Amino acid sequence: VQLQASGGGLVQAGGSLRLSCAASTKISSYYGMGWYRQAPGKQRELVADWRTGGLPTYADSVQGRFTISRDSARNTVYLQMDNLKPEDTAVYYCHAVRRDGVNYWGLGTQVTVSS
Length: 115
Fold this sequence. Notes:
There is one protein chain. By secondary structure, the protein is mainly beta. Helices cover 0% and strands 52% of the residues. It is built from no helices and eleven strands. It has strands at residues 3-6, 9-12, 17-23, 32-38, 45-51, 57-58, 66-71, 76-81, 90-97, 103-105, 109-114. Strands 2, 4, 5, 6, 9, 10 and 11 form a seven-stranded mixed beta sheet that branches. The chain has a four-stranded antiparallel beta sheet with strand order 1-3-8-7, with no helix packed on it. The radius of gyration is 13 Å and the shape is globular.
């Protein structure tokens, strides 16, 4: 199983980016998929998550600014990030979890928001 994240980059505060996570297998086979991030000197934290049969959930810090979506035909999960803030600067990781609890991680994509 491979998760290939892309779409990161440098953007000014207030700008937008869309991250993509392409899975090597059908995303419908996973119990859940989502995005985490890790800023320098900080622990990895959940950004957005979508479990089968449930609604997307978001970290309080990104609620109303970020939107997770998925395209089953392309086996891809997206993270639309609007109104970006400098504190959103981090490496963003795609994550998938199977029903048996096995976790998969992508390599990460850097997002840098300048003030």
